[in-house]
Amino acid sequence: MTTTQAANVGALQGIKVLDLSRILGGPLCGQILGDHGADVLKVEPPQGDDTRSWGPPFRDGVASYYLGLNRNKRVQFMDLASAEGQAQVRALMAQADVVVENFKTGTMEKWGIGYAQMQHAFPHLVWCRVTGFGADGPLGSLPGYDAAIQAMAGLMSINGEADRDPLRVGLPVVDMVTGLNAVIGVLLALHERGRSGLGQLVDASLYDAGISLLHPHAANWFMNGKIPGRSGNAHPNIYPYDVVNTGSAPIFLAVGNDRQFRLMCQHLGQAELADDTRFATAGQRSVNRDVLKPLLEQAFAAHDGVQLAEDLMAIGVPAAPVLNVEQALQAPHTAHREMVVKMGDYTGLGAPVKLSRTPASYRFAPLTEGTAFLDAANDH
């Protein structure tokens, strides 16, 4: 577990980000940019970001959901529907390198502070717009929500057990991937600005993110035209890539090639399985998975799951115990990788991207208030 690192040595040191976004995708983008050194000022409406009330749990009236997405930002409250708020945000845009927003299409334009209106006044700005469906097209301008996009993008149709109803992925995967896409887009645009001196619009939509997550199901459908179904924990293309029972706790196997399968069988004292023509190749194991799984579970019944997973990993066979959230966050390797950070009474997830010379730093806990960029100098 890491504690506060006051020094800002991040790769984005000197980049000023005006975060006008709410909920998840935009705020996650802003937090990642802030973790890597950007000076992020988050502007919230007078009543605050909606996620402040998305609980329990709460601390001092603020939900954990909000705290998990708004580190390394300073917060200023502003009514952008008012003339005063619009004047304030224009002044901030003049200083900023990046604007992140996820208002409904047309809202900022109505206020006179939309991208098309601001790009001429501030041509250096990289403007990141996070939307549900984009600004145009059959669904353009409609609001989008993670679970709804999971349904529309086909994700629910392939998630869950084959004999059960379609199932939402148990975390806001579409929102989070949209936030990651937004970060990628911002970094690409900043890199290009180094050549042209000009900003541009970064368009990150939840719908596109949801569709982009369909590998390998989309690739399979493009090739064979068969509509993918639900396969539970099992991989649609390779086997054993599934949760299997042991003598104690279940484990997940991720056997991706013939060598790994043979090593596993030898470790179990079942070398003959690797020579069986039904299981000798990856393709045959996938076709005959319904026969193979009970044979593996019979062999695993004499083993403790956690120890077996560790032993298999040690010989080069991908395997893992199935942990709950508490166990995962308290795992020794989680601490070693500095994936839990603490600042005062704030605890959150660490930055997953590690840079050797310019690492992430944790400078501001959520709810830190500020009125302007730390460095108001404008180099543009």
Structure write-up:
It comes from Comamonas piscis. InterPro entries: CoA-transferase_III_domain (IPR050483), CoA-Trfase_fam_III (IPR003673), CoA-Trfase_III_dom3_sf (IPR044855), CoA-Trfase_III_dom_1_sf (IPR023606). GO terms for molecular function: CoA-transferase activity. The protein has helices at 25-35, 64-67, 83-95, 107-110, 115-118, 146-152, 173-196, 206-212, 217-224, 258-267, 271-275, 282-287, 289-300, 305-314, 325-329, 332-336, and strands at residues 16-19, 39-44, 58-59, 62-63, 74-77, 98-101, 126-131, 201-205, 241-244, 251-254, 319-321, 340-343, 346-349. The protein has 380 residues and is an alpha/beta fold. It folds into 2 domains: 16-213 and 330-349, Rossmann fold (3-Layer(aba) Sandwich); 251-321, formyl-coa transferase, domain 3. The strands form 4 sheets. The protein has a 6-stranded parallel beta sheet, sandwiched between helices. It has a 3-stranded antiparallel beta sheet with strand order 9-10-11. A hairpin with a 2-residue loop joins strand 3 (58-59) and strand 4. Helix 1 (25-35) crosses helix 7 (173-196) and helix 7 crosses helix 8 (206-212). Mean pLDDT is 94; it is low at 376-380.
Number of strands: 13
Tell me, rounded to a whole number, the average pLDDT.
94
Q: For the largest sheet, list the strands in their spatial order.
A: 5-2-1-6-7-8
What kind of oligomer do you see?
single chain
Radius of gyration: 24 Å
- Report the top-level CATH class of the largest domain: Alpha Beta
The total tally of domains equals 2
General shape: elongated
- Estimate percent helicity: 25-40%
Share of β-strand residues: 5-15%
- N-to-C series of helices and strands: EHEEEHEHEHHEHHEHHEEHHHHHEHHEE
CATH T-level topology of the largest domain: Rossmann fold
Structural class: alpha/beta
